[in-house]
Write a structure and sequence with these properties.
Length: about 200
């Protein structure tokens, strides 16, 4: 089967791409409005951007032609927290995507506790295994719907005790949430460990 994207609608392409790029991790982002309302929403167009400096990025689309609360707050405040939930938080992650009015604080509605961050004003979620305090680094707009790729520099890593040793996160212990196409999620399956590529003995190339 071949599909030429030129004949697809924007929503068809969204469906296709969100089925192709799987599984995706979820950035569960807390932001703060200029009036101090703490917002929370999940973003699975989420990736690692660079290590020097440490940076992560998320793609945020428009909603009805307007910026989503998260993008608006990040642009206004220049900071945000990327929280990483675990599989016990799947339902809360999903529910935090409901389009609440900007005056509503999702952590409050969902009964999720927040705690102050160390470096930025935006609080982080208290009970998640990982939170990354981020400062907005760059916003790049793509395409007609005006999707924004927002890259942020990590100013502080918060990692639950016991989850990280020698700077390596134990994925089995983290139990991350995997996002698939549609309203579908998965848990981590079998982990297959290989030799480090540098240690693999190769023949002539
Ligand atoms: C698991 C999950 C992942 C999502 N990923 C994205 C994403 O990468 N980009 C995006 O624009 N919206 C994404 N959404 C939709 C937003 O979370 C949703 O539009 C939310 O209402 C935005 O909230 P806000 O207006 O408070 O920022 C996702 C929703 C779910 C449930």
């Amino acid at each position: 089967m071949k599909i030429n994207p030129d004949i697809l609608t924007t929503s068809d392409i969204y469906k296709l791409l969100t089925g192709v790029v799987v599984p995706r991790p979820i950035a569960w982002v807390t932001t703060m409005s200029p009036t101090g309302i703490v917002n929370l929403a999940p973003f699975s167009a989420f990736t690692f951007v660079s290590s020097a400096p440490p940076m992560v990025g998320i793609n945020i689309g428009l909603r009805g032609g307007d910026l989503k609360d998260t993008a608006r707050n990040i642009e206004a405040m220049g900071e945000y927290v990327v929280n990483i939930g675990d599989e016990t938080m799947m339902e809360a992650v999903h529910r935090s995507a409901i389009d609440y009015h900007p005056s509503i604080s999702e952590p409050e509605i969902l009964g999720l506790k927040t705690v102050p961050s160390d470096v930025i004003r935006t609080p982080r979620l208290r009970d998640v295994p990982i939170s990354l305090e981020c400062r907005l680094s760059r916003t790049v707009e793509f395409g007609e719907p005006g999707t924004r790729f927002i890259a942020g520099q990590i100013l502080m890593f918060h990692i639950r005790d016991g989850l990280c040793s020698d700077n390596k996160i134990d994925a089995r212990m983290l139990r991350p949430i995997c996002r698939l196409g549609g309203p579908n999620y998965a848990r981590l399956g079998e982990i297959v460990s290989m030799q480090h590529v540098g240690d693999v003995v190769t023949g002539p190339r």
